[in-house]
Structure formats: C-alpha cells, structure tokens
Amino acid sequence: MISKLQYITQGKTAQDHLDHIQTACASGAEWVQLRLKGFDPKTILETAKKARELTAHYQTRLIINDYYRVAKEVNADGVHLGKKDDCPLKVRAYLGKFYAIGGTANTLEECKVLLDKKVDYIGLGPFRFTETKKNLSPVLGTSGYKKLLEELQTETPIIAIGGITLDDVAEIVQTGIYGVAASGAITKDFTSIPVFHKILSSPSTQEQVYKMDDK
C-alpha cells in the first residue's frame, strides 16, 4: 500500500536525517524516504541501517532514494528512482516483487514511460519552486496536475511533490492526485503530520457533492 503522505528527509548531516526520521515516526509518519545527497557510500549505508532500525520500531515504511542496492541490503520497503537513476525494470529484477519502486516525472511522456516500466507510484512535480532540489523541472501547479491526471487515466498512485506546504494540500487533493510528498514543511513542523493525514484522508469536495446529488 502506497502512503498518501510521504516524508522526504533533509539535513546537513547524516545524524540530522536520523533525528528527523525519529521525530517524524514519533509524530505519526507512515512512510519515510531517506534522501541523502552528497554523502559517501559508507555513510549512506550506515545511515540507512540506522534508519531501518528506527522505522522498524515504529512500523513505518522506509524508502531509500536512488540507492536500490542499499535498499535491499538494509531490507527497506522500497526505493525511489530519479530521472537519471537506473531503469525501474532493472531495479525490479534486482529487488524482486516485494519492494515498492517509485519514479520521478515532470511531463506526460515521462509518466507514460514509468507506467510502461511498471513502477508502483510516480512522484510528479514540482508543484512549485523548491530549494530542496537542484536542476528543477518546470513547475506544474494544480492546473498542471489536473491536466496530466486527466490525460493519464491511471490507477497507479500519483504523488504530488515539490515545495508543498500544509496550506496547499486541500487544493492539490481536488485535482484527483493520490497523495503528497513533503520535506521542508514537515521538517519545520513535525506536529503538522497528523493534520496532513487528516486532510488527505477526508473525502474530497467533489465526492461530497456527488453523494449529496445521489440522495
């Protein structure tokens, strides 16, 4: 099951990432993506091992960003692949069927390629400008999500990502998006996690209107 709220770690040091994972899990996070950029392979592996221990304690799913071999070594729940990472089909052959595999997309064509390669979910963005990621793709906004979702017509979960704050979630949900991933907004206030969950799990306005008309 793909979580409707995905927390993506950030921090200047490996310990920052681990501290944030601890707090996120204690605050109710069900899905954490360990995203380590600019660290050496040994640090990444050791941090992933510790992250697995933390998430296992809280029964939180752990996804490793980019490093699918590390994901398998630490027995994580899955991997998230960037555009320049290995092919999802190659990664699936390596990991097997029990690992979740997600991919990053910005355009309709990129989504179709990932769907053809049988990813379990797509991280679609960015929603708005974010400093978390370098070489940012064109910003989509809610209108971009709505258009892409109408064209895709897929049951594969599409996760909105990129500069998303708590105030954005209700509007994003109206596009038909499956869920959201957040990094900075949650890191700044881990107590927002239950509020994210509440908004994401509540019926959309469209569903409410449909039920009213149905009566």
TrEMBL record:
It holds the Pfam family TMP-TENI. Residues 8-186 form the Thiamine phosphate synthase/TenI domain. The keyword Metal-binding applies. 2-[(2R,5Z)-2-carboxy-4-methylthiazol-5(2H)-ylidene]ethyl phosphate binds at residues 130-132, 163. 4-amino-2-methyl-5-(diphosphooxymethyl)pyrimidine binds at residues 33-37, 65, 104, 133. Binds 1 Mg(2+) ion per subunit. It is an enzyme of class 2 (transferase). InterPro entries: Aldolase_TIM, ThiamineP_synth_sf, ThiamineP_synth_TenI, TMP_synthase. Keywords: Magnesium, Metal-binding, Thiamine biosynthesis, Transferase. One of its GO terms (biological process) is thiamine biosynthetic process. One of its GO terms (molecular function) is thiamine-phosphate diphosphorylase activity. Pathway: Cofactor biosynthesis; thiamine diphosphate biosynthesis; thiamine phosphate from 4-amino-2-methyl-5-diphosphomethylpyrimidine and 4-methyl-5-(2-phosphoethyl)-thiazole: step 1/1. PANTHER family: THIAMINE-PHOSPHATE PYROPHOSPHORYLASE, THIAMINE-PHOSPHATE SYNTHASE. Belongs to the thiamine-phosphate synthase family. This is Thiamine-phosphate synthase. The lineage of its organism: Bacteria, Pseudomonadati, Bacteroidota, Flavobacteriia, Flavobacteriales.
